[in-house]
Amino acid sequence: MKVVITGGTGFIGRMLARRLVARGELTAPSGNLETIDEIVLFDAVAPAHSIDGLDDRVRIVTGDIADCDLVRSLIDRDDVSVFHLASVVSGGGERDFDLALKVNLTGALNVFGACRARSGRPRVVFASSLAVFGGAAMPRVVGDTTKQTPQTTYGATKAIGELLINDYTRKGFFDGRAARLPTIIIRPGRPNLAASSFASGVFREPLAGRTCLLPVSLSTRMPVLGYRTAVEGFIALHEADGAALGDDRAVNFPSLSVTVEEMIAALRRVAGNRPLGDITPAPDPAIEAIVATWPVETEWTRAAALGLPVDADVDGIVRAYIEDFVDEQD
Amino acid sequence: MKVVITGGTGFIGRMLARRLVARGELTAPSGNLETIDEIVLFDAVAPAHSIDGLDDRVRIVTGDIADCDLVRSLIDRDDVSVFHLASVVSGGGERDFDLALKVNLTGALNVFGACRARSGRPRVVFASSLAVFGGAAMPRVVGDTTKQTPQTTYGATKAIGELLINDYTRKGFFDGRAARLPTIIIRPGRPNLAASSFASGVFREPLAGRTCLLPVSLSTRMPVLGYRTAVEGFIALHEADGAALGDDRAVNFPSLSVTVEEMIAALRRVAGNRPLGDITPAPDPAIEAIVATWPVETEWTRAAALGLPVDADVDGIVRAYIEDFVDEQD
């Protein structure tokens, strides 16, 4: 079978590809576990460096997800699964509304339409976000039945994507599932335009010996998810029994609700004697305004019932990051 | 100022146009009450007969709402308000998914984009529907903070429209409001493809001396709204203070929760000595399946706080229909 990952050269896309290469199989539209013989990582731009942990089953294709014909040419087998991760992120969407609509809405319609055009009802896993929640009536703890009143264009397009996933699935066009993700930590590399970028930076920059300019206060509390657990969760959601998902295909992923202060304490505990760069307050009203619209805690009994994996604590996430990205670079 | 009503030659569109002609003014983007000097009724097809109660301020334009340039040519003044009612209805959307997406999603994007292109932040009133609710987790009574898990493509596109109204308003592109309508009764003329068509037919057909074939059971309970009250509600929502609406611009319209049996009892009370056609059970599993996904009652404290009008009882709705459509035709 074939696997297409949109946004495939991004951090989660490449971690997921690596994990699928190691795993070697997935449940195909046939309903059986089948060997993965082809993986396409589709993205807007080519990665600057080659990606570790892949092999010749994996091909990188670059292009515009708003190009309907191109997207159809990627999803060209009936024995296919698609992980649709491509998206303009929160801060980026606030800067460029039209680009967010083009990539996140037209792009999703192209991907979903291409999957619908295949026979065999392929599985489609869509990366949604807690940014679908927000607004004056949002409860402090959001769950799978909380109303979605997003306060970013990014969140609005993710909520629209969830509605489309539900309806295409209800119509039998494909077998969709939406992973409603909290902030994923710890992203390596450069900061990005996501308003949540600081939640990785607060670990990554000090561990690299650099100063972290912290745009939000230490008391900011938010739900976070380790990237290893996120990738395992994507695969578990893909493999989950569709009947257990029912008529609402979007699932709040498990998260830890922690303050920035607790993140920093975990960093210091796990880093031990490593020299750490400074963490310096540098309040950014634009970032603070977006973060203030997010929920501080999530409820995820449904994810637990589906067997989705859970992080034990932030310390484990920091240890994994040091293992995967810091010590590796030494 | 100008008013554009999409779906303008439909039942509610023409009743709204008539009411606006009589009223003569609306709050314009200037923030002041301004005289309406131009009303465009845009629709897919021209009406078979001329529409009573209009005058030379009103022009009918026919065309495809998915035609972006055409839609822009209608919304060609900065002192404009738009009532966006055009939509493929529930049963129609289940028959033709692509048409529902084209009219309800592309059409909405065209209308909203054209409003955004005007300066002056025009008011846009979008006709949504209780069909945004549904699914296994839906409570028996739905309110303004109930999660939307629609079980028709019609409902899905209405939920998407609400998300877009919220986001375009948040961005300051226009001043949007979404009217979340229960089933509006009593529609004159022919039955349509809405799954709710029977809720008008059960009054209209007997009053016309025809037999009503009832596709659902007498115990079916649903929220309904009289068309006079719906039209007054559209205008009241247009006139409402935006600050009072807050960051969620969609409002559950007031409704009466009644069974089909209670509708028939009201009909018999009000009809008095008029001869009535028979009401004959003719269960339609497709209609019953859609109706079963709808809520049976709505909560609308927010609409009441905004001053939206409320029906006193079904008897009053039947009396109005007889006055407007039955006796008039005698």
Number of strands of chain A: 16
Which class best fits the helix and strand makeup of chain A?
Answer: alpha/beta
Low-confidence stretches of chain A: none
Main pleated-sheet profile of chain A: 7 strands, parallel
Strand order of the largest sheet of chain A: 5-4-1-6-7-9-13
Task: Identify the notable features of this structure and list them briefly.
homodimer; 330 residues; alpha/beta; Rossmann fold; three-stranded mixed β-sheet; 12 helices; 16 strands; globular
Task: Characterize the structure shown.
2 copies of one chain form a homodimer. Chain A starts with a strand and ends with a helix. The longest helix of chain A is centred in the N-terminal third of the chain and has 21 residues, at 97-117. Chain A is built from 12 helices and 16 strands. Chain A has 2 domains: 2-183 and 225-252, 3-Layer(aba) Sandwich (Rossmann fold), CATH 3.40.50; 185-221 and 256-296 and 312-329, UDP-galactose 4-epimerase, domain 1 (Alpha-Beta Complex), CATH 3.90.25.10. The first copy, chain A, has 330 residues and is α/β, with parallel strands linked by helices. In chain A, the strands form 5 sheets. Chain A has a 7-stranded parallel beta sheet, sandwiched between helices. Chain A has a 3-stranded mixed beta sheet with strand order 10-12-14. A two-stranded antiparallel ribbon of chain A has the order 2-3. In chain A, helix 4 runs parallel beside helix 5 (153-170), helix 6 packs parallel to helix 9 and helix 9 (260-271) crosses helix 12. The mean pLDDT of chain A is 95. The interface between A and B is medium-sized, with 26 and 26 residues.
